Amino acid sequence: xxxxxxxxxxxxxxxxxxxxxxxxxxxxxxxxxxxxxxxxxxxxxxxxxxxxxxxxxxxxxxxxxxxxxxxxxxxxxxxxxxxxxxxxxxxxxxxxxxxxxxxxxxxxxxxxxxxxxxxxxxxxxxxxxxxxxxxxxxxxxxxxxxxxxxxxxxxxxxxxxxxxxxxxxxxxxxxxxxxxxxxxxxxxxxxxxxxxxxxxxxxxxxxxxxxxxxxxxxxxxxxxxxxxxxxxxxxxxxxxxxxxxxxxxxxxxxxxxxxxxxxxxxxxxxxxxxxxxxxxxxxxxxxxxxxxxxxxxxxxxxxxxxxxxxxxxxxxxxxxxxxxxxxxxxxxxxxxxxxxxxxxxxxxxxxxxxxxxxxxxxxxxxxxxxxxxxxxxxxxxxxxxxxxxxxxxxxxxxxxxxxxxxxxxxxxxxxxxxxxxxxxxxxxxxxxxxxxxxxxxxxxxxxxxxxxxxxxxxxxxxxxxxxxxx
Amino acid sequence: xxxxxxxxxxxxxxxxxxxxxxxxxxxxxxxxxxxxxxxxxxxxxxxxxxxxxxxxxxxxxxxxxxxxxxxxxxxxxxxxxxxxxxxxxxxxxxxxxxxxxxxxxxxxxxx
Lengths: 470, 111
Prior knowledge:
The complex is a heterodimer. By secondary structure, chain A is α/β, with parallel strands linked by helices. Chain A has two domains: 86-279, no CATH class; 294-469, Rossmann fold (3-Layer(aba) Sandwich), CATH 3.40.50. Chain A is built from 17 helices and six strands. Chain B is mainly alpha-helical. Chain B has helices at 3-20, 29-39, 44-52, 57-86, 90-102, 106-110. The longest helix of chain B has 30 residues, at 57-86. Chains A and B meet through helix 1, helix 2, helix 3, helix 4 and helix 8 of A and helix 1, helix 2, helix 3, helix 4 and helix 5 of B.
């Protein structure tokens, strides 16, 4: 053991508490995979976290108690206020932000530990040195990448892919520079250069930015999930550097379960991870000049109410527009109004509708839409040809028939809700502007499609009022 | 702890992570991501450990920021997950309301 290195508390009691903590994490994640136990699972994991922190604070490795208190107080205040104030619609970017600070914490801890271990005269063993560098680089990439993801979802930076020629080369060079710098530091680990370390930190920050900027907003959920797994690995690496078993287990758990989640999400979008990360979704979209003016059928709330009121079956297809307009309650009221007339009402949930998988389920559950009315894509698509009216509420790309019909489309192969199969389609949308993928939607121009240009909330309550009067 | 034991733990934990996430309904993808996101806030422990041996004010500043970041990750992560999952409770109430409205038998409505 190296005396200069900051080491985790040891002793059987501390280790036993750590074992309890990570067991609770595993159990909590397991419970999180079932709807009925998910909430309890989250509580259980939180208890594990509390145990791990409390036992660490009680040991004698702890110093600078006032500073620790300051850090914890600031962190708790920010965390509590942000979580309580965030709108349900903004959850995805909130998760991105929390993930980013986690990665930032890993990078900062590694930086501090690097300064600390290199201050002594002794040489630093590679099994501490390598994890420190790994945690620095991955943590930094995760911090900056998550911030970009947050910016894109919050529309602070353009959600469309930001690309320039030679991008892959620049990224490759950055990665090479990081690796080369790390190797130089490793060879010279008796007296490593602080400047070179900072250089690696900066290069990793640049890489984090450059890695997420070219990816379109529609793919952000998968990117956040991937960065989540990254942060887990950075935490695990910090555990190696600090000889801390609970960091290793918890970090690795998140790393591997996060990888599986990422793969499941990209499978739901029918896109391979490499395609998603390196192709720049939507970058090949039609240029503005090429987009031809095509006629659309525009209707008002009254016409929509008539179409809906005299239908036998109606399927609502919600998307991000519903989330933005906070229209879930109005939509629910419209659905109830239709049901009063004996109309069969269902909601078609595309796996990636909104900004995150499950986004629509959360919103509709908030509005008390009965669970039985929420149909997954595979379940509802065979029903579509028998559906009288499909109402698309602020959804776009997930209904675009180009995914099926046009092999050259950037979203070719993505599974869609086949609303074009329904007898009639009403699209509630504020304008004809393209969706997150930045491509035009052929659905809007079909003969059986009517466009209702309005925000989702206003339109839903107007139609509901009109249906009531029918 | 020897490096080899640490690597053993790492590999086993990786497999546990792979296995524990199997067949997750799409609905739970976001909450589950958010929950695992909160769990990696455990890295905050590293901040608690390194700040104790901070040598200069730069290391102290880095340490405080790291602890604050880690705490935001933990507190925010678990709270946001809880809020998301809290939304699903409405589902349990709903069928009961409908059962009451239909009132097939008084006994059923009463339960």
